[in-house]
Design brief:
The protein is of the alpha+beta class and 221 residues long. It contains four helices and twelve strands, in the order αβββαβββαβαβββββ. Strands 4, 5, 6, 7, 8, 9, 10, 11 and 12 form a nine-stranded mixed beta sheet that branches. It has a three-stranded antiparallel beta sheet with strand order 1-2-3, with no helix packed on it. The longest helix is centred in the N-terminal third of the chain and has 17 residues, at 2-18. It comes from Cardiocondyla obscurior.
Length: 221
């Protein structure tokens, strides 16, 4: 009799102890609502800048979402240019503080006066050698809110025979991007447009060499 009483007592104590816990069975397993993370390719900086068109590039490596093993992108966003460009004490605007290769002067001069000013500063009127270089100079104009600037290009020797200030034919420069803002440029309107300017966002144009414009100087790297 005592044995059965002891068994009943033990069962009662265990049942009373478990009653203190709000125990419930585990809920049914439900998988997480997971979404795939976007593929982030590895990036590396290409420091080779031995040509005007190489510059700094980002190389994307990886197969996901790409049909090729490697793609090269030139990075030209607004934040990039704000880091790239800075103001000098003389008011000019340059492409970097280490390789002073391009400088925009916010002073209006005639083409010949601008040419002389660049020489006096140790450089020459800028010559565009690639679309990448044109994009950089155009962005400089935008950052300064300027519309046009002189380039080192003219056809003063013979109408239609455009050469650089180094007497290099325009066809050999790597860039012949005349503006589409007006038809048939360069058009030598009025018969006296023999010097080239860069128009903000619109390529090159021929204008009167005695007109007044801001100017780009280029310096040896």
């Amino acid at each position: 009799m005592f044995k059965y009483f002891l068994i009943v007592l033990v069962c009662w104590v265990f049942d009373d102890a478990t009653a203190e816990f709000d125990w419930k069975p585990n809920p049914p397993y439900k998988p997480f609502d997971m979404k795939p993370f976007p593929f982030t390719p590895s990036l590396k900086l290409d420091k080779q800048n031995d040509t005007a068109s190489s510059g700094k590039t980002v190389t994307m490596n990886g197969d996901a979402n790409y049909n090729v093993g490697q793609q090269i992108f030139y990075v030209y966003d607004n934040q990039f240019f704000k880091r790239l460009l800075y103001n000098r004490e003389d008011g000019s605007f340059v492409t970097s503080d280490s390789s002073d290769t391009h400088r925009l002067y916010p002073y209006k001069l005639t083409w010949n006066k601008a040419r002389q000013a660049c020489i006096q500063n140790g450089g020459h009127l800028a010559i565009i050698n690639s679309e990448s270089e044109e994009m950089i100079l155009s962005q400089m104009l935008q950052e300064k809110n300027l519309d046009t600037a002189w380039l080192g290009l003219h056809d003063l020797y013979e109408e239609g025979d455009w050469v650089t200030i180094m007497d290099q034919p325009i066809q050999n420069t790597g860039f012949t991007g005349w503006t589409n803002k007006w038809p048939n440029e360069p058009d030598n309107w009025n018969g006296d447009q023999h010097c080239a300017i860069l128009i903000k966002k619109d390529g090159m144009d021929d204008v009167n060499c005695k007109s007044m414009h801001y100017y780009f100087c280029e310096f040896p790297a």
